[in-house]
Write a structure and sequence with these properties.
246 residues; Heat Shock Protein 90; 7 helices; 7 strands; 17% strand; binds adenosine-5'-triphosphate; binds magnesium ion
């Protein structure tokens, strides 16, 4: 995508956002009773308009993020990121949704797992999308199992659900822009989540993939290189302390 095209798409997304926000605000005026008495039936319709405006707003936001991400125009805010902490944050954020579906989110990770060098907000977005997808497919009262493992060079997060899984032929296509399984588009999703996840992993020099064995649900994994500079710093500090104590 050339630079002028990115600018046009960004402007388009930006211009779409303003009217959508004003639709939502107008609905809130009905909701708050600022425009006089509203019947229950009318409030129901206002609720539908609000929900659709919120979906549109999210889609426009995702679209803008994708344009930036694909262009490499997203400014990454690199920091020391603890992947298990990100999983906890997502679990807190999605707790009402998980509870409503009677789903449990379990996390297995070594207590001494070091942080990785990454953009924490972007990784929260990756994990949120993976969990949100799993929630949509997991049977009620099942578990969504997350594990984080690491070695000297990489850390890997794996998320396993117990839903219907993904046909082998689709395991790579699901990461394509706007790709969706049958019937998903009617639920207010737009097929951008996994595409965005892959773009974020690419930007971090990592990778993301899906596996699914018949009857075993879907398993998504991503791998990210650990910060070699931080590891070297930690080693240097440990050596210096050991020398001082000797
Ligand atoms: N855990 C899963 N189990 C089965 N199918 C899945 C799972 N996760 C994703 N998929 C399939 O991959 C498709 C693409 O997922 P993706 O997250 O990119 O889009 P979406 O969830 O449909 O929309 P969005 O994330 O933009 O709201 C889904 O529509 C679905 O068909
Ligand atoms: Mg999704």
């Amino acid at each position: 995508m050339t630079r002028p095209r990115l600018d046009v798409l960004s402007m388009l997304a930006h211009d779409l956002k303003a009217p959508v926000v004003s639709i939502r605000q107008a609905c809130a005026m009905f909701d708050d009773g600022l425009l006089g008495e509203v019947s229950g039936e009318q409030l129901e319709v206002v609720g539908m308009i609000t929900a659709n405006a919120a979906t549109l707003e999210r889609m426009v936001g995702d679209f803008l993020d994708i344009v930036r991400c694909v262009e490499g125009a997203t400014q990454l805010h690199m920091e020391q990121v603890h992947l298990p902490a990100i999983v906890h944050a997502v679990a807190r954020q999605l707790a009402p949704t998980l509870e409503a579906a009677h789903l449990t989110l379990t996390l297995t990770a070594a207590a001494d797992l070091p942080p990785v060098w990454a953009d924490g907000a972007q990784f929260q977005r990756v994990v949120t999308n993976l969990v949100a997808n799993a929630v949509r497919y997991a049977p009620p009262a099942s578990a969504i199992e997350v594990a984080v493992v690491g070695d000297a060079t990489n850390q890997r997060l794996t998320l396993q659900d117990h839903g219907p899984g993904i046909p082998a032929a689709d395991l790579d296509s699901i990461f394509s822009r706007f790709w969706q399984g049958e019937g998903v588009s009617t639920s207010g999703n737009c097929g951008l989540g996994l595409f965005l996840c892959r773009a974020i992993l690419d930007q971090h020099g990592g990778r993301i993939w899906a596996e699914s064995e018949a009857g075993q649900g879907a398993r998504f994994s991503f791998e990210i290189p650990v910060d070699r500079r931080a590891t070297a710093r930690a080693l240097a500090t440990a050596t210096a302390t050991a020398t001082a104590e000797a």
